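Handout, section 4.2: multi-component inputs.
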Amino acid sequence: MPGSDPPGHPGRTIVVAFIVRRVIAAVLMLAVVSAATFAIFFLIPRALGQTPEGMASRYVGRDATPEAIQGAVKRMHLDDPILVQYGRFAQGIVAGQDYSLGPKKAECPAPCFGFSFNNNQPVWPTLLDRLPATLSLAFGAAIVWLISGVGIGVISALRRGTLLDRTAMTVALAGVSLPIYFTGLVSLSVFAYTLGIFPGGGSYTPITQNPVMWFQALILPWITLAFLYAALYARLTRAGMLETMSEDYIRTARAKGLKESTVVVKHALRATLTPILTIFGLDLGLLLGGAVLTESTFSIQGIGKLVIDAIRGNDLPVVLGVTLFAAFFIVLANLIVDILYAVVDPRVRLS
Amino acid sequence: MTTPPQSFLELRDLRIHFPTEDGLVKSVDGLSFKLDRGKTLGIVGESGSGKSVTSLGILGLHKGGGAKISGEIWLDGEELVTADQDHVRTLRGKKMAMIFQDPLSSMHPYYSVGAQIIEAYRIHHKVSKAVARKHAIDLLGRVGIPQPDKRVDDYPHQFSGGMRQRAMIAMSLSCDPELLIADEPTTALDVTVQAQILDLMTDLQREFNSALIIITHDLGVVAELSDDILVMYGGKCIEYGSAEDIFYRPEHPYTWGLLGSMPRLDREPTERLLPIKGTPPSLINVPSGCAFNPRCTFTDRTEGRSTSEVPELAETEGGHLVRCHMSREERRSIWDNEIKPMMEST
Ligand SMILES: Nc1ncnc2c1ncn2[C@@H]1O[C@H](COP(=O)(O)OP(=O)(O)OP(=O)(O)O)[C@@H](O)[C@H]1O
Ligand SMILES: [Mg+2]
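Output:
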């Protein structure tokens, strides 16, 4: 393409076609992910010797008679070929499904991820129940780290080599290397239990119940989680800004007589942020599937806490559900980033 | 502090040095010249001789970049090296503008060509976006972009190399600068477009009585446009004079080499008459004596001074300056009897 004149304007139809293509790709991606996840959770245990009866016994309790177990196998079709089972699983997600569990009938409307081994609750409503806590944590932290990380990165780049820059980058290095359960516990013990400025662990309250409490309880988790990412983003932004500021088009912007602040924000930051946007979308998508460490450290009943408890309790359907849910957010984030990128970077649209 | 000069632009002993890990890079080392309104100065010299660094220096674009700058730059009665940099900023784009060497990397990839021209115009003119847009379309039309009202919204990557160069020129001309520095403005263009662009710049010059500095490897372009020519070598001026001086009475061996290596239709491109052997000098460890001495074929005629003494830039006749150890008579006789006949014979 370089050298030739590509047809002038990316028309509306090209943009729409681009978006449609990406959406279809995302849906296919989800199908593949669900199949792969299903295979990991059902095929591998089977290969390792887990029998349909063993599976079924998780539903009917420990002391069940062989007849009861056989009944459960039949009702849940656990002896069907794996492909048929996957078909039923996928159908459940798309169209819903009815199970008969023991004496009672259980209805599982779409999207149906089955029932928890541990409390026989349907997985999907549990997920939805846990989602607000995870959303609050992830979005709040994202705002904090984006503003502080990018801000510090830009200032560090502009004041390169100064004491400020070196201090910021040292702190950032610490931020990248310190694990959350360490920073989380330290901040809890200092700010919550010793100084008493913020409420301690387990004090998360839904925003609908008490917005003030919600905010107070989340301040420490937000900052702890954001610290890690802010450190990463500060380093990324600094490196990006240093590179961009030496580009020829920055010199052109200065040659026009632009104010240095305009040069930095409108020209340099604009170019630096575009690749960071991609990483941001993926990081956020990943977090929406549950911030496992932060939620555990601060005992926030979010999706991350749900999955860690499910793993401990061998609760396969919940683990499977959360995995797919998380995969959904990652694919969605990818999709949004792709489309946003096409809006922000004019060079993407035609390709 | 010295008195302001009469000329519109005057450089006095300008030095631009970059401290690097390998040592001090003396990219520009004691450069002086004058340029009046309505006149054109051509700067020639091989790659790395300091042409671009000089032009960026005039615009004040080295400040803050770690460069050590000394000397004086007078523009229309104001000294720019010591001036308030925020004031110099307001001169950029309006009073002095530059056409950059590499138009693809010199335009912002995320903004449309029109937006970049509009921005340049609106920094110095308090007009609405719509008015500025009309001006941008008008400019794009003037530099020969077809259908400028449509292409104005294109992004730089959608333009061909030649079109980008023209858009770059449109951007630089947007505020009718009184001093225009064109750094290799026509290298990426074919001959017809090149002629159009050069016409465009001379039009601007005539219309606004602007001063023009044109930097190029193409001696043909220089010959066509320049009133005066400055030959740079290793960050210094080694010969300066009117276009006639440089083309008909050149006195420096390096200038002879440049003229001799001009491609000509009647010769094979590879067959250069007077190739300049060797490589450009290091700007960190400048050769002792005359910086050109390792490549000069006439060192035996300098009474041994070529490696021991730095030659002065001395006037040979009526504003024609040469930096060479050979005597004026010696240089003239070499040109008249050895070089000129050789160039004319083939
Ligand atoms: N910021 C800088 N730091 C260190 N050295 C530099 C810097 N900018 C330029 N130089 C050096 O200064 C010298 C002159 O560079 P300049 O760009 O002026 O050459 P030029 O004459 O324009 O060459 P060309 O014809 O290839 O454009 C080169 O050796 C270059 O490496
Ligand atoms: Mg150059």
